[in-house]
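Sequence in, structure out. First:
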Amino acid sequence: MQRVLSAPDLDFDAVRTELGVTEDYGADAQAEAEHPVDRYAGEREDRTDLAFVTIDPPTSMDLDQAVHIAADADGFVISYAIADVAALVAPEGALDQESRRRGTTFYFPDRSVPLHPRALSEGAGSLLPDQRRPAVMWTIRVTPEGAVTQVSLRRTMIRSVAKLTYAGVSDDATRGRLHPSIAALPAFGELRHRVALERGAVELDLPDQEVTRTDRGWMLRLAPHTPADMWNSQLSLLTGMCAGRIMAEAGVGLLRTLPPADHAAVVALQSSAAALGVPWPPGATPGQFLAGLPRDAPATLALMSAGAGLMRGADHLVLGGDTGHATAEKMSHAAIGGVYAHVTAPLRRLGDRFATEVCLAVTAGEPVPDWVTRALPTLPTLLRSAGSLASAADRAGIDLAEATVLADRVGETFEAVVLHSATQNRPAQVFLTEVPVIAPCDGDPPPGRRLTVVLRAADPSARVVRFEFIPDSGQ
């Protein structure tokens, strides 16, 4: 039985202040965001004839992507409209410079701090329903076998007809009443997921912790993973791989990369599976092995956690100039199984705006704009810094919630699953089964087992929670 733990109030403002994350964009940048001008208004193709829909969390207003899928005997035609942020942000102006300083949108349990002021990110730039909006529309033809045969992109004007949610789309699919614009989404998503696993992609299905406000205060819960999450992610992955190929072939752009997992990481995962008594199917890739695990088994959490060792070293690679002849391995994203780029979330990620401009120029046979080529070499450092701060923000919010809801439970016992055992450099880590907390644990608990741990510390001021495994406390 799940234990309900809550806290009446949590001070996330203190976390934002500590991290230096604010919504003060400066007067000039704010003014640009409040009065954006579409620099390409006269060049757009009107595609308001297509009934685009968006799929996002229910409270999201910064809507980057809208989709329409048509299925026929030749497969699928994906029309994927991405908010045209570059058209609304003056190159090297105040808003551009401020967005480069930030690098990304930062998320906290009570609210986000957007990459761009809300007037743009949740207003003029967002693909809100029943509004004409500038967008870069990708058109991608996918065969019934999942192969890409045709790709194009161009600047358009579109109109979304509905703001859908992941849970709602999943429920509609179950009930056979999907919106006509995405009736083919489940078939497309499942197809591309199978293709991804066949090419060696790796997906880690670890639980997502979420802090939510309720009538009883702030509560910890697990964010539900729905089938629509996976289907929708395949749209973004497909588009990112097409963008990556365009830039790799042209030798200019910004790729998202991940080196192949080293042999030791694969052996470690195989050893963990053997120790937990989980068979590894002959010939299965790590991604296929992990995807085949039962979601509700304690060993699955431990193996997914061990699988994180396959995903180390993600970075961005600039193509062009001295880096224009990078090797295929250096350009590849191993977890995706191919060349890949971020282009589908320009309202929330800095690099997407620049990568999209490269793709537009290359496919049109035009030079990449000077303001883009000047920016490209600076982006990896900016994005690394922003990613580190975003991770710290996400973790700090969760840590504060965990420590606060558990503060008066020190000394109590909890049922837990061990995600990984202790090493010389770090303690063991456990995931509570009664309330969604992931925390360090003293002692030497065996991985992939259900057992009992004792809460030894929960300090909201330090945002620290710590458990202890006592062997005779029961397993």
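Second:
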Amino acid sequence: MMKKVALLFVFCAATLFAMADEGMWFLMHIKRLNEADMQKKGLQLTAEEIYSINHSSLKDAIVQFNGGCTAEIVSPNGLVFTNHHCGYGAIAELSTKENDYLTNGFWAKNYNEELKPKSLYVRFFVRMDDVTKRILSLVNDKMSEKERNAIIQKEIAKIEKENSENGKYVVNVKSFYNGNEYYYFVYQDYHDVRLVGTPPSSIGKFGGDTDNWEWPRHTGDFSIFRVYGDKDGNPAPYSKDNVPLKPKHYLPISLKGFQEGDFSMILGYPGRTNRWMPAAGIDQNVFYAYPAWVEASKVGMDAMKRHMDKDQEVNINYASKYSSVANYWKNRQGMIDALTKHKTSATKRKAEKKFLKWASKPANKEQYGDVIQIINDYYASTNLKARHDNYLTGMLRSSTFATLPYSLGNGLKQYAANENNRKELKTSSRGFHCRQLRKTIPSTGNRRLGRRTKPLCSQGR
């Protein structure tokens, strides 16, 4: 599943010919960028009703579940709906050979029967703000990357401390557009979250890995939890004295259904997008990184499955880990297939060719003329490292060091044995400076829609 960044949204009108307004939008920008277009398409809410700092709003009902998934508060008593696969780890943790809730399902008939897993939390989004000017005003192009990073991290620590209210809130400062913009996000975490109900795996995981990442899916992919707080509604460690949370806002559920042409909107916690990745980066993923991830994951999955099939207790203990590895395994293979089928890197190269033509003009050449070459050289120097790192990551995610296939074992042996090649690769990788890339990559000219891209390089690599 995706890792978290912020509460963002995408909207569409569900007509026969309508397409979603593609992209991700910051909630703090919807009044300026999106409200008018959304209302033309049928939205009956105002921007203030979706995102408000001073009043309850829709954002208060959309929570992040256990650090990754999106979930929804659907009752005045803290009831939370999320996907079955999002609650999978907690359900597995609560299961035993005698009470296998993962396989057989579970339904609490009252508050007292609800079950508390050891580690599970729900995160509420409080507010966000732009701190780009504050941070970037402290740095300049004459600084080394190390100096720049140290100053930025020091200022980020200040911002997070200033807005935490002595630990009441969790504050994260995130960079966007490869370090050209910075926003801080304020959250409040509740750690007393209890299982209310889950369907059996025959419903919640119907289709298994075969149907995962395929649409349409015919699975009851849901699970139900409840958030608890102290008597004043504040976050509190688990206690029998805690009470169901009275949320600031919850989603009313309509039993009327919907009609063709009704407005629809997705509000949730995506992770990041690699939409702006250049052609060389796509090729690195398709030919080096993702194949290694797929192969290493399959080795780990096969090793786990051999033991899981022999013992039900082992099966329960490893169910969540196996499911997580399988999720990414299917995802990465799907991306290899889709990117290859749609010739995505070729499309990117056409766009880069147009950019290069513009960058070659006398007025632009000095600053932008070598951007594409710098990017291509970076990926060429890190292709083998990407393959190695994804092999290693795939195996570590499985927490098992099974017998490696020849291509993996031999590749790791060669990498470890050839010290000269390793030093050369490390040196060449360090030759490409993040600061230079940030400076030379121009704006795309599009509206800033809250997309976050993976940095082209990072400090210390």
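Remark: DSSP finds 17 helices and 13 strands in the chain.
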